[in-house]
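Below is how a single chain appears once it has passed through the pipeline. First comes the sequence as given, then the structure the pipeline wrote out for it. We keep one example in the README because the format questions we get most often are answered faster by looking than by reading.
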Amino acid sequence: MNSYFWRLLADYVEYHRTPWNCAMHVFGILFLFLATLLPLRLWFITVFGIKTCVAAIALVPVLIFWFVLDFALGAVILGAAIALFGAAAMILNHVTPTGMWSLTAILMVTGVALLIMGHLVFERRRPAMIDNPTHLLVGPLFVAAKLVVVLGFRHDLAMIIGKRRQASSR
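Resulting structure:
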């Protein structure tokens, strides 16, 4: 794990100590990710002779950033992004443009409300993004890190995010 990522994640963890705030962030970040994908999946451009949606083009630099910080967590986020791309495609196949914009607005408002409520109600601290805007990009890494730690992987991350694995009592 590179030291820059270690410091970023440790700083982010300081703002996300309570389990309820973390739960709010899981849903809030997923809602915001999907809300961003919905309209961007509607617009297509041709790049180097390949027709692709703007959502895929916008995701590439962020994915590169995540992969550089931590390859395994970048792969987890890529898997989640693929699933959310599929969900966005299914939604777009079943709603009108008005329905899509309504759903996008609902997801955005709900996502932001969950993040704010997590900080104000459960954490009793202002959002990390206010002190360090880079934390906007660290949030998905934090959620991915929580997931891999809960699944029993990445003990190095467990030490940072506070979920140390208990030793066997044998």
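The chain has eight helices and two strands.

See the next section for the split statistics.
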